Amino acid sequence: MSPDMNAAKSADRKPGINITPSGEKALKMYEKEIATYVRELPRLVEEDEEGRFALIKGDEILSVWDTYGDAVQAGLDKFGLDHPICVMKIEERNIKRYAILMDQLKERACQ
Question: How many domains does the chain fold into?
Fold first, then answer.
């Protein structure tokens, strides 16, 4: 195959994210929290929360913290060790990344 044909094939391919089996398990476990993050991320970025950490439980952003450790500690204080919590860094670039991920997961579900 010529270099031009390879370049054309690469241009036609959508960007993808490699999801490991353990990654798939985490995506399922935190499905609601990830959906909440994706939904609320543009608002959080607009409110100048970029670089901070969101403590998420279910469909709610509970609080925003300056450090990952502080967000985890707040989650542990509120829920203890027996309940999973989700802490996500607020980054504008994740708007596009998670859009790609969500599209990829939808395509997989349809196959």
Answer: 1
CA angle 101, 103, 108 (to 5 degrees): 95
Residue 43 lies in a domain: yes
Determine, yes or no, domain membership for 59: yes
pTM for the complete prediction? 0.77
- Over the stretch 7-65, which tens digit does the pLDDT of each residue have? 545 555 666 777 788 888 888 888 899 999 999 999 999 999 999 999 999 999 999 99
Asked if residue 56 is part of any domain, the answer here is yes
